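Need a sequence for this fold. Nothing fancy.
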């Protein structure tokens, strides 16, 4: 799918929600249009030759600042794609109550074609271009990882910002998704996949939604197919299979797929990919994509537009969870939403920005979450146990005493905050779908909730 088609798809969902809300056309147009997109060409000397790179950073809406959104490294990136992704960030943050506006960035590059030293120089040069225009800045614009980027790139960006702003005490809040030893937060790398897991668990608490999807029983034993075993797909598949008893029967990747009816060991497959750079030669390898195979839950976690009008009618999964941004085109959505339940990207992959928000707050407060209260919490419970023992005259034989006493660490608090965010947003989305006649699917419901909040924010500002 081209960037333009992707942007059109996002705008069509927006228009449907604006109609449901009876939003004035002028306000809707103001919210929908990206504020500004910066395009930069810059040169880096590689192997004695100057290579020119093109990058973008779009600020979709700064009704709240900083604006937030990942930076992707991809050969297919273009301006329209960045604008579509930035718009999704605005709506996503509003939906899950993260106090940020929306932004997104991209560099047109195949990161695998460069060694890490050259990639570092390219990333730092791109960062300089964005930093000098405040398109990376702790109080104005805070990037994060996306496709093709991760902790390593975020560490380079943070370091570059700090070098250019050595007296900014909040320098490390200029980007999120950093490694722990570079002011990151525990649970950020896994956050988007973890959020997908929490979203699916919440779906299983909503009987009416399960009925729409024609899914019965519990999550345990359900079959799942995942597209893309990168950051998001890997964590989602790993947690669902290792913690919830889900059977991941298919994983499709850029160079083929693995299919195993008995369930795939995700960690082993990931290790194989990391060691060999490919899914080939792994047990169950087939050279096809598995989007249209039979399963209970389909999790596209790679690219946009992979479910489109050419394959929509052949999709057999009952529940589709959009872990990637925009994996279902608008036309495909029109076909699928009639008979399946789709948990939309706006909500399903919001775990990343949620934990990014926690990381930003941690960087501004300069203290690890849990550091002040952990031992206090433990002492309170210990005192309570002592009092009970004293009153009853009996020693409590608690087999898991350590777990009961244990105060909250940073990771516990991050997961708790993420779980709460995902659950609250799902409840709001589902409630609205079932209580408003004009809203027939979770996607329109999610967008209408987001839009209502953004419109109110604009109106409060006097627009
Ligand atoms: P990633 O680069 O870590 O992983 C993408 C994976 O998809 C890779 O393993 C790649 O090999 C695979 N892939 C590429 N082309 C494919 C194809 N044609 N078929 C099957 N697999 C293919 O990226 P990511 O960070 O996991 O992001 C994936 C999606 O999730 C993107 O849409 C991104 O915008 C979205 N997202 C990511 C985050 C985050 O925190 N990383 C947050 C929100 C949304």
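Here you go.
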């Amino acid at each position: 799918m081209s960037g333009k088609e992707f942007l059109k798809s996002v705008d069509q969902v927006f228009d449907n929600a604006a109609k449901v809300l009876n939003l004035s056309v002028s306000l809707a147009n103001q919210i929908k249009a990206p504020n500004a997109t910066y395009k930069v060409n810059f040169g880096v000397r590689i192997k004695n030759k100057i290579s020119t790179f093109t990058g973008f950073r779009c600020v979709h809406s700064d009704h709240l600042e900083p604006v937030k959104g990942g930076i992707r490294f991809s050969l297919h990136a273009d301006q329209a794609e960045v604008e579509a992704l930035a718009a999704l960030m605005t709506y996503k943050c509003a939906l899950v109550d993260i106090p940020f506006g929306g932004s997104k960035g991209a560099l047109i590059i195949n990161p695998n074609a460069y060694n890490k030293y050259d990639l570092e120089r390219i990333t730092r040069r791109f960062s300089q271009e964005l930093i000098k225009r405040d398109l990376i800045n702790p109080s104005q614009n805070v990037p994060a990882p996306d496709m093709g980027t991760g902790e390593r790139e975020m560490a380079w960006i943070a370091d570059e910002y700090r070098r250019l702003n050595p007296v900014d005490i909040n320098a490390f809040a200029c980007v999120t998704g950093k490694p722990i030893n570079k002011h990151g937060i525990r649970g950020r790398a896994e956050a988007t996949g973890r959020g997908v897991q929490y979203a699916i668990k919440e779906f299983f608490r909503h009987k009416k939604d399960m009925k729409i999807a024609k899914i019965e029983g519990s999550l345990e034993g359900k079959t799942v197919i995942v597209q893309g075993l990168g950051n998001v797909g890997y964590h989602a598949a790993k947690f669902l299979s290792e913690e919830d008893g889900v059977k991941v029967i298919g994983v499709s990747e850029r160079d083929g797929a693995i299919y195993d009816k008995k369930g795939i060991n995700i960690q082993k497959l990931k290790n194989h990919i990391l060691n060999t750079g490919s899914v080939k030669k792994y047990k169950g390898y087939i050279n096809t994509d598995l989007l249209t195979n039979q399963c209970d839950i389909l999790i596209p976690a790679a690219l946009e537009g992979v479910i489109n009008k050419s394959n929509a009618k052949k999709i057999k999964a009952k529940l589709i969870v959009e872990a990637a941004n925009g994996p279902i085109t608008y036309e495909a959505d029109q076909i699928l939403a009639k008979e399946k339940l789709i948990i939309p990207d706006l909500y399903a992959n919001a775990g990343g920005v949620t934990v990014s928000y926690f990381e930003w707050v941690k960087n501004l407060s300069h203290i690890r979450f849990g550091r002040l209260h952990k031992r206090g919490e433990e002492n309170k419970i210990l005192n309570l146990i002592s009092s009970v023992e004293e009153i009853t005259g009996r020693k409590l034989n608690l087999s898991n005493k350590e777990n009961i006493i244990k105060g909250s660490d940073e990771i516990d608090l991050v997961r708790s905050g993420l779980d709460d965010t995902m659950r609250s947003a799902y409840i709001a989305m589902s409630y609205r779908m079932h209580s408003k006649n004009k809203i027939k699917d979770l996607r329109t419901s999610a967008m209408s909730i987001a839009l209502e909040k953004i419109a109110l924010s604009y109106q409060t500002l006097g627009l």
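For context: The two ends are 35 Å apart (CA to CA).
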